[in-house]
Amino acid sequence: MDMNIQKFMAFVKTVEYGSFTKAAEILNYSQSGISRMINDLEKDWKITLLERSKAGVRLTSDGVKLLPYAKSVCKEYEKLLTQVDEINGLQSGLIRIGTFSSVAAHWLPNIIKAFQDDYPNIDYELLLGEYSEIEEWILEGRVDCGFLCLPTHNGLETVFLEQDKFLAVLPENHPLAKLERIPLSALCSEPFMLLEKGKKTEISEIFERCGLTPNTHFTTIDDYAVMSMVESGLGVSILPQLILKRVPYRIVTKELDVPVYRNIGLALRNKQTASLAVKRFIEYLKYR
Question: What is the DSSP letter of 175?
């Protein structure tokens, strides 16, 4: 990126967030780097743009006058990059995606296949993790975007994709399998195989909202480990419906007496500054 554009972006983002530190996080620079770029602008223009204090930064009167022009330059530069990408026709590129197991197994193959048919030279890097890891990868810039359970970190922009219902999971021939819907209270009297994805405790929260406590015998972040344990008759569980598609285990799934869902979405740091490949990929997600 042209050095002057970097300086303009440093100025715009520092004002937008009121902090050198936050601007540095957004632009992937050190705090000192952001401060130095704005100091360079002030020296070049012989103008003080920002007043610094312990409470943060705020615009001077000269800064107020110049900020709209700096914003305009940044926006036009982003448009320029978009047009360059369009001209190149997405002939190459890399999309780095953070995902969890059910999405990786049941959504991504079809989405990537459809995307690849139109853009065959785009490459992909998939990082499999639990929700908190994926959040960190997005915030750190390790991935371009990631699938998460919503709501997520308030510093991320999100696109809602689908509600995913939770189902009771039982061994074959289990007495509860005869019921049309499974009461949560009935699951509490059985050894429970608990799925927990890092800091997200969705399944524990289902019980807590109903004032119930499961008899937890086994806890893991691995959906398939839970299914294997249930198949072996070690207990019962609750899992999201998405992971229960094309299951290779001899288990029975039943709806809960009170329907419960998780909201799946795609998260990224900034939709506007995302690469064209990522923006196109998001479009394909809507029609998966």
Answer: G
Q: What is the dihedral of CA 254, 102, 200, 126, to 10 degrees?
A: 180
State the Cα–Cα distance between residues 95 and 181, nearest whole angstrom.
41
User: Looking at 172-260, which runs of residues are DSSP E strands?
Assistant: 181-182, 191-195, 215-220, 236-240, 251-256
pLDDT digits (tens, 9 = 90+) for 1-56: 466 899 999 999 999 989 999 899 888 889 999 999 999 999 999 999 999 888 88
Question: Exposure of 239 by Cβ count < 10 A (0-12 exposed, 13-18 middle, 19+ buried)?
Answer: buried
Q: What is the pLDDT of residue 2?
A: 62
- Give dist(CA 274, CA 281) in Å, integer: 11
Is-cis flag, bond preceding 68, omega within 30? Answer: no
The pLDDT tens digits of the residues spanning 60-69 come to 999 999 999 9
Q: How far apart are CA 226 and CA 220, in angstroms?
A: 7
Mean pLDDT of 132-147: 94
**Dihedrals phi, psi of 149, to nearest 5 degrees:** -90, 125
If you average pLDDT over residues 159-166, what whole number do you get? 95
Say how many C-beta atoms besides its own lie within 10 A of residue 144's C-beta.
20
DSSP string, 58-76: EE-HHHHHHHHHHHHHHHH
Structure tokens at 8: 């303009």
Please write down the long-range contacts of 54-61, taking CB distance under 8 Å and 24 or more positions apart. Answer: 56/18, 56/19, 57/14, 57/15, 57/18, 57/19, 57/20, 58/18, 59/15
φ/ψ of 165, rounded to 5, equals -75, 145
pLDDT at 86: 67
